[in-house]
Amino acid sequence: MFDATRPNLPHRPGVGYKAQHFNDIMADAGPVGWLEIHAENYMGMGGRPLAQLRHLSEKFPFSVHGVGLSIGGEGPLDADHLARLKHLCDWLNPASFSEHLAWSTHDSAFLNDLLPLPYTQATVKRVADHIDQVQSTLGRQMLLENPSSYLAFEASDMSETDFLAEVVARTGCGLLLDVNNVFVSATNLGYSPQGYIDAYPLDHVGEIHLGGHDEDEDETGAPLLIDSHGAEVVDPVWALLDYTLAKTGPKPLLIEWDTDVPEWSVLADEAKRADAALNVVA
Amino acid sequence: MTSPQTDFRAALLDPQAPPPPGVENPDGTPATKRFDVYRNNVAVSLTDALEAAFPVVHKLVGTDFFRAMAGVYLRAHPPTSPLMMFYGTQMPEFLAAFGPAQSVPYLPDVARLELALRHSYHAADAAPVAPDALGQLPPDTLPHVTFAFAPAVQIVPSDHPLRDIWWSNTHDPIPQIVQTSQPTLITRPDFDPVVDALTPPQAAVTRALMQAEPLGDALRHGGAAFDLGPLLGLLLARGAITSLKT
Predict the structure, then answer these.
(1) Does A150 touch chain B (CB under 8 A)?
(2) Where is the Putative DNA-binding domain (chain B) (predicted)?
(3) What is the DSSP letter of A5?
(4) What are the residue ranges spanned by the domains of chain B?
(5) Number of domains chain A contains
(6) d(Cα A161, Cα A201) in Å, to the nearest integer?
(7) Residue A269 and residue A31 in contact, taking contact as beta carbons nearer than 8 Å
């Protein structure tokens, strides 16, 4: 097993940090016990973003959440980008580092989206090799997040939960369970979200994500949910969270809101609801 | 050599292309609208990033033009790094060559200024010298003094009234902008970059100083009648100079 710094976020609600909420959070963070940043937004050399982080990190534990490492990419990891991640993690010393089961870079083009992977043994090996490289470079155990899926691959010959379990077994990484992504993928691909949770390697969950999604339909009229991080968490996702927490007990629980970011009070209300869900199982 | 991600990437960036092979709906039929979710995410997120990066270019050309232009740009120049804060590096040259933008000749300079502002915003912090630092030096050493500048300091050259155009679109409209060459100086006294107009001789002297020419040599770039006082006052007031060496 990988021996390194392990994630240790508090088992409390956290929120995705947005610069416009700096004053509100410093004044009264409500039940929010930790903050998450997208690593790539803090890879400048100085200025306000890093100054704000310096202040906030005196008060809050941080989760660094990468969105650009392309762990599922066919090519090698971007060494410059991995070095930037190491620099940020060494400087901030976050309580957790996480990334996505997805790819975003190919032939040196970064496509700014979390793109899907077929679930095969070849993909397991590629993803596991990249996670080994990340964990040994950072000196940290990382958490791997399940994606929102909109389509399936003809080539896939294993379930997402089996895929994740195998990556965990090979690399010793932990998992970031995004309950909204489970709900979105299950709806889009026609399986039971509770069944997914039942099959998921819950012992390895180091963090849970919650966020909002948009509703659409495909050309056949089948529901097509789109992960947007731009709205409140819907009731069926809260219910799936309760179902999950009943099995795992309290976990670090993040509210993600990245587009059409509301004023702080809206986010604080979502965090209160997350706090209530955690208290039920505490 | 082709691969699944090469096919996927090519189809993502080409709105006319069919989805890549092997992507399916839950019933096993080829995914079209579902693939379009990814295609749309890529185009919309990159267009949004460009809109956030070039707000004055956006304002000058309007949303419809900007989005159409961004659609061409993002396919010609997809990001080459996950640092979206610096996306759009080729925008000035792209706009200079983009036929439909030719009626706004200063657009590439505005894009150059907006790029420079973002680099300045994210540049490393640096403590400025005291406002009287130059006065503390023995007068006979002044011609030999070299200056070090904060990493946030940049000069954006322009044959257009660039600072006034920028100011008019970000602060108060200037009723009559005089057609003049207005290089701009970008500094970052605190956390927010500041844009000042320079005269072409001031820009030439500053550029020489930034290349570590001694003050005496740098002044020659300003011409015979150059008055250093106003430029030096501005550079010191903006915290642009971080050290002096004799």
Answers:
(1) yes
(2) 5-95
(3) B
(4) 1-104, 123-246
(5) 1
(6) 7
(7) no
Q: Other CB atoms closer than 10 Å to residue B180's CB: what's the count?
A: 14
**Distance separating alpha carbons of residues B86 and A133, to the nearest angstrom:** 26
**Rounded-to-integer distance, Cα A205 and Cα A247, Å:** 11
Tell me whether residues B38 and A112 touch, CB distance under 8 A. Answer: no
| Cβ pair A9, A206 in contact under 8 A | yes
A3, part of any domain: no
List per-residue pLDDT tens for chain A, 282 residues long. Answer: 455 788 999 999 999 999 999 999 999 999 999 999 999 999 999 999 999 999 999 999 999 999 999 999 999 999 999 999 999 999 999 999 999 999 999 998 999 999 999 999 999 999 999 999 999 999 999 999 999 999 999 999 999 999 999 999 999 999 999 999 999 999 999 999 999 999 999 999 999 999 999 999 988 888 999 999 999 999 999 999 999 999 999 999 999 999 999 999 999 999 999 999 999 999
A 212-231 residues with CB below 8 A of B?
218-220, 222, 224, 226
| A34 within a domain of the structure (yes/no) | yes
Q: The domain that contains A216 carries what CATH number?
A: 3.20.20.150
- φ, ψ of residue B235 to 5 degrees: the values are -60, -40
ipTM over 0.85: yes
**How many angstroms away from the CA of A277 is the closest CA of chain B?**
32
Other Cβ atoms within 10 Å of A6 Cβ, number: 13
The one-letter amino acid at A217? E
Whether A152 sits inside 8 A of B191 (CB atoms) is: no
Domain that holds residue A34: 13-281
CB B147 within 8 A of CB B244: yes
B8–A43: do the CB atoms touch at under 8 Å? no
| Residue A180, domain member (yes or no) | yes
CB contact under 8 A, A224 and B37: yes
Verify whether the Cβ–Cβ distance B85 to A224 is below 8 Å: no
Cα(A35)–Cα(A18) distance, rounded to whole angstroms? 10
Which residues are CB-contacts of A183 (< 8 A; sequence separation ≥ 6)? A193, A213, A225, A236, A237, A240
Q: Are A257 and A229 spatial neighbours (Cβ–Cβ below 8 Å)?
A: yes
**A2 found inside a domain:** no
Contact A109, B80 (CB under 8 A): yes
Which amino acid is located at A55 in the chain? Answer: H
CA–CA dist A99, A141 (Å, integer): 11
